[in-house]
Amino acid sequence: MGRKWNNIKTKKASKDANTSRIYAKFGVEIYVAAKKGEPDPESNRALKVVLERAKTYNVPRAIIDRALEKAKGSGDDNYSELRYEGFGPNGSMVIVDTLTNNVNRTAADVRSAFNKNGGSMGVNGSVAYMFDATAVFGITGKSADDVIELLLEADADVRDVFEEEEAVIVYAAPDQFHAVQEAFRNAGITEFTVAEIIMLPQTYVTLPEDAQAQFEKLVDALEDLEDVQQVYHNVELEE
Fold first, then answer.
1. Which residue intervals define the domain TACO1/YebC-like N-terminal in the entry (predicted)?
2. Does domain 80-129+202-233 have CATH number 3.40.1010.10?
3. Fold for domain 131-201?
4. Which of 39, 128, 162, 163 could pair with 1 as two cysteines, CB 3.0-4.6 Å apart?
């Protein structure tokens, strides 16, 4: 299980390196989630998940408030949620989630990023079947046994709990995100190193050094695209 968490950490650290870009993407994601329902996280669960994830990325309150105010007011930007699937070097698998107000631009940009970095676009469903939507939480200051006990007491349904480098990681079904979060909050745990719903690969592949370098360029190129919100893959990245 540690291999999976290491990939999440690597992905998050990569994102932390370009905060202005990440904050802008969160602004769009918060706006879209708020427009789907009430701009109130207590009544809009999708918004609540986004805001919890934004907290782990230290998104400034001003950016969050601006997106919420836009959703409450006259903001009429229309965004489509689109998922692209493809392959990287050596048959590695990649999922790209986007929010876009220009579908043609986004499709062309994503395809170009694949083609220029040793990858290729796949058809819908060609990759996603090898991933599972998963709620993931990371906390510090507790042991795995402590976490298992509090989750059992709260009757929260989780898939796995394990320790990895001074953190305890919890995997659960996506529909258990709020139940697990509430169980932690009731136990006085309100700070998470990670709290989001991801696409977790069922198996991982290891690439030779040259292929991994090319793969990392592909991921960087995709994450640099304005409309790309998340990139998931099944590569075991070597540090």
1. 3-73
2. no
3. Alpha-Beta Plaits (3.30.70)
4. 162
